[in-house]
Design brief:
Elements lengths: L4 E12 L4 E3 L1 H11 L3 E8 L4 E6 L3 H14 L7 H6 L4 H10 L2 E7 L2 E2 L6 E6 L5 E11 L1
Antiparallel strand pairs: 1-8, 2-7, 3-5, 3-8, 4-7, 5-6
């Protein structure tokens, strides 16, 4: 039986803005390499209720399409009950984050994250004001 490794790290993002999509694939790959895990999983989690972790083909068209799509399914212009509680203008941000989710788990094989040729992992800011974000990365495996 081999020893199981648990390795943890953080990725910090400064002054993100609403609908900004930040490619974090290379940072995750560096964490996986540093962990020395050859077979296992890497998980990335954003602490906060208005950010999300997604996969996408990180290209200019999709960087525009995704915010437009989110505006269609959770528009800024409608009333949200969240506003009655906090009056902070980000009810749509919370709804969008709830739909997309705060984390992602990616398999590791032979020391490499498994992902498609054109598939990247990204953080997407959904809040209405600039944020400093901490993404928590956990690598588990052998």
């Amino acid at each position: 039986m081999k020893n199981m490794t648990v390795f943890q790290s953080e990725i910090q993002l400064k002054d993100t803005h609403e609908t900004e999509i930040v490619d974090i694939t290379s940072e995750l790959e560096r964490v996986v390499k540093k962990s020395e895990v050859k077979s296992g999983v890497v998980s990335v989690f954003v602490a906060g209720s208005t950010g999300t972790i997604i996969t996408l083909e990180y290209e200019p068209g999709l960087l525009r399409d995704i915010p437009v799509f989110l505006e269609r399914i959770a528009p800024k212009s409608i009333d949200y009950f969240h506003e009655q509680t906090w009056h902070d203008g980000n009810g749509h941000s919370h709804v969008r984050a709830s739909l997309l989710g705060p984390s992602l788990t990616i398999p590791i094989n032979q020391g490499q994250m498994i992902h498609g040729t054109w598939q990247q992992v990204a953080f997407m800011e959904l809040d209405v004001k600039p944020r400093r974000r901490r993404l928590y990365v956990t690598v588990i495996g052998e």
